[in-house]
Write a structure and sequence with these properties.
single chain, alpha/beta, Aldehyde Dehydrogenase, Chain A, domain 1, Aldehyde Dehydrogenase, Chain A, domain 2, 2 domains, seven-stranded mixed β-sheet, five-stranded parallel β-sheet
């Protein structure tokens, strides 16, 4: 049995006792164990603050970018090994595993290119401004790396990408990282960490990994530290309320679950390019990674007169998805990641049905290649709520699996109001070719969304799917989506840097801030 250790203070360290067991979601066979009992997290923080931080801050942006480039290449070179780990412990198809691992490599590469562009600077300074009548008295806003530790607590669904997307931004900004993946799928992250360490490119103290329970990890957070969390809204609320987080004003970023929406414009005719793209995207977002994506489409709003046609088209598209053991030929959707996920999704569908939705379709296919009675399998399913305002739970409870709910609207104003009932999402998508309709919907959706994708005929074969997170664009969202922001190009660095107004003689400040 494989034993996953934590990498802390420069060494692989094993916790006491058996700890937690990790399983193959396809067979329910144990694949690894891990424990953090007895590990010294206080020492990990000291190692990062005293060694990792100074080492990173001594590097220029270009040098930090070179580190990220080497890490990206290492992931690409180890792609097959990481894909195998993902299929074994997360139950992903090969395509879904590549989605996670290539996303990790791509995000690191993107931030490596930003580092190269920023060049030999070690911190950032915004454009200055004359503050009084004297042209000599000036003010600048300097952004410098915080001198603490970035603690990253990641979700189970993207064990590679989750680590890399946060790591890329933090390292480029100049902050050392302690990464805590979800235990259930930590095998992929463990293998990824082995790959990154083998490069020899990571500055000493810049990256540590916690495999297993967080224990008292977060009790060591201080005023210069930051905490970035991806996961449930309930857990995000709990983390924000930790005593030391409040007392020490620890900077926190939360990216939580959300009821992401897709809206079909009233102008879109069945069979048109935009219609085809809409059906394809919704079916993909419901089934990719077995619906276990924070950006998956949970609510689908369509003109009332089109709802039957949309239902028929969605059922046809989703019914074409072969599901089962991802190692079997032709399978395009694997099991859920854990027994707990299966229980939650099963109960979640029942909650939606009791709250006003009805299940109109569930795949009748057998789980291909599955052993009878084994595995955390759940088939794709489509629900429908013909009175969306009365089905309040559909706008409140997320089923984190291959499930979505179809609902009608009777006007563009109502479409915007229905999306807003979700109280904030990571992404909303609009499918229309009518400029006026697009304008109305975008203006209504932006206050409630971290990102809005507009898909029209002109980009039907070019635009990315709504669930794809691009490192150049902000990832996060208002309200129940957590209220945070990640990535977004250089915007992402702000979370890891202290922005301070510096005032004084212009010439002296330019020298002090290394602006000449």
């Amino acid at each position: 049995m494989l034993r996953l250790k934590s990498y802390l203070a420069g060494e692989w360290r094993d916790g006491e006792g058996e700890g937690a067991t990790l399983y193959d979601p396809c067979t329910e066979e144990a694949v690894a164990t891990t424990s953090t009992a007895g590990l010294d997290f206080a020492a990990a923080f000291r190692w990062a603050r005293n060694l990792g931080g100074p080492n990173l801050r001594a590097l220029t942006f270009a040098q930090r970018g070179a580190v990220l480039k080497a890490l990206s290449k290492a992931i690409h070179d180890a792609r097959e090994e990481l894909i195998e780990a993902s299929m074994q412990n997360a139950g992903t198809t090969r395509g879904d595993a590549k989605f996670d691992i290539d996303g990790a490599a791509g995000t690191l590469a993107y931030y490596a290119s930003l580092g190269k562009k920023l060049g030999d600077r070690r911190f950032l300074v915004d454009e200055g401004e004359q503050l009084t009548r004297s042209p000599r008295f000036y003010g600048y806003h300097a952004k410098m790396p915080r001198t603490g530790v970035a603690v990253h607590v990641n979700a189970f669904n993207f064990p590679a990408w989750g680590l890399a997307e946060k790591l890329a931004v933090a390292l480029l900004a100049g902050m050392p990282v302690i990464s805590k993946p979800a235990t259930a799928t930590a095998l992929t992250t463990f293998r990824l960490m082995e790959v990154l360490l083998k490069t020899g490119e990571l500055p000493e103290g810049s990256l540590q990994l916690v495999c297993g329970s967080a224990g008292d990890l977060l009790s060591h957070l201080g005023p210069q530290d930051v905490l970035a969390f991806t996961g449930s809204a309930d857990t995000g609320t709990y983390l924000r309320g930790l005593e030391n987080v409040l007392a020490r004003s620890v900077r926190v970023n939360v990216e939580a679950d959300s009821l992401n929406a897709a809206v079909l414009g009233p102008d879109v005719e069945p069979g048109s390019e935009t219609w085809i793209r809409f059906i394809k995207d919704v079916a993909l977002e419901v089934t990719q990674k077995t619906g276990q994506k924070c950006t998956a489409t949970r609510r689908v709003f369509v003109p009332a007169e089109r709802i039957d046609a949309v239902q028929e088209a969605l059922v046809e598209a989703m019914d074409a998805v072969v599901w089962g053991d991802p190692r079997a030929e032709g399978v395009r959707m694997g099991p859920l990641a854990s027994a707990q996920q299966l229980r939650d999704v099963t109960a979640g569908v029942q909650t939606l049905v009791e709250g006003g939705a009805r299940e109109v379709w569930r795949s009748s296919r057998e789980a291909v290649g599955a052993t009878e009675g084994k595995g955390y399998y759940f088939p794709p399913a489509l629900l429908r709520a013909d009175e969306p305002r009365k089905a309040g739970v559909v706008h409140e409870h997320e089923v984190f699996g291959p499930v979505t709910t179809l609902m009608p609207y009777t006007g563009l104003g109502e479409a915007g109001e229905l999306v807003a009932l979700g109280h904030g999402g990571l992404v909303a998508s609009v499918y229309s070719d009518d400029r006026e309709a697009i304008g109305v919907l975008v203006r209504a959706l932006v206050p409630w969304s971290g990102r809005v994708l507009v898909a029209s005929a002109k980009v039907a074969d070019q635009a990315s799917a709504p669930g794809l997170v691009l490192p150049s664009c902000v990832h996060g969202g208002p309200g129940r989506a957590g209220g945070g922001e990640e990535l977004g190009g250089l915007r992402g660095l702000d979370f890891y840097m202290q922005r301070t107004a510096v005032q004084g003689d212009r010439g002296l400040l330019e020298r002090a801030l290394d602006m000449r």
